[in-house]
Design goal:
This protein is α+β, with helices and mostly antiparallel strands.
Length: about 140
């Protein structure tokens, strides 16, 4: 039954991926997720938060690698910032280590949040305390 179930799921996924909208969004996302979450891949290491594009605004990104300095300082990090709702596009930033806040999000949960354009917020996402201070000072006004 396990083999039959896998075969049916494979056929259903292939049929869905033939649909134009599904093909343009889901197929690249699935391929990127398979590549980045594969245990033998050199994909993303961790989901992180950092302030970007300005202080007080927090961006979700994927820790991709280290960028060394010429001197003996600890390296900065290259962070991939995906765009919503298509996380296969985005941009790369080099961020100093002290400006990065680690999260407990899995890469899969972060991708789900990005693909849903922030509608599906994982329960494990917790913002740094300084975010609350920013909202308390200048926070959004109730509707």
């Amino acid at each position: 039954t396990h083999v039959l179930r896998r075969r049916v799921l494979h056929e259903v996924r292939e049929a869905l991926e033939r649909l134009p909208i599904v093909r343009t969004i889901c197929s690249p996302v699935r391929k990127l997720m398979e590549t980045m979450t594969s245990p033998d891949s050199t994909g993303f290491k961790q989901v992180v938060l950092f302030e970007y594009p300005r202080r007080g605004l927090w961006t979700l990104g994927f820790l991709a690698g280290d960028v060394p300095f010429e001197d003996d300082r600890p390296p900065a990090h290259s962070i991939f910032v995906p765009t919503a709702p298509n996380p296969t596009t985005g941009f790369m930033l080099i961020v100093p280590r002290e400006e990065i806040r680690p999260t407990k999000l899995t890469i899969e949960a972060a991708f789900q949040m990005i693909v849903s354009a922030g509608v599906a917020v994982p329960l494990t996402l917790r913002l740094p305390a300084e975010v609350a201070a920013n909202f308390d000072e200048t926070g959004p006004t109730p509707a």
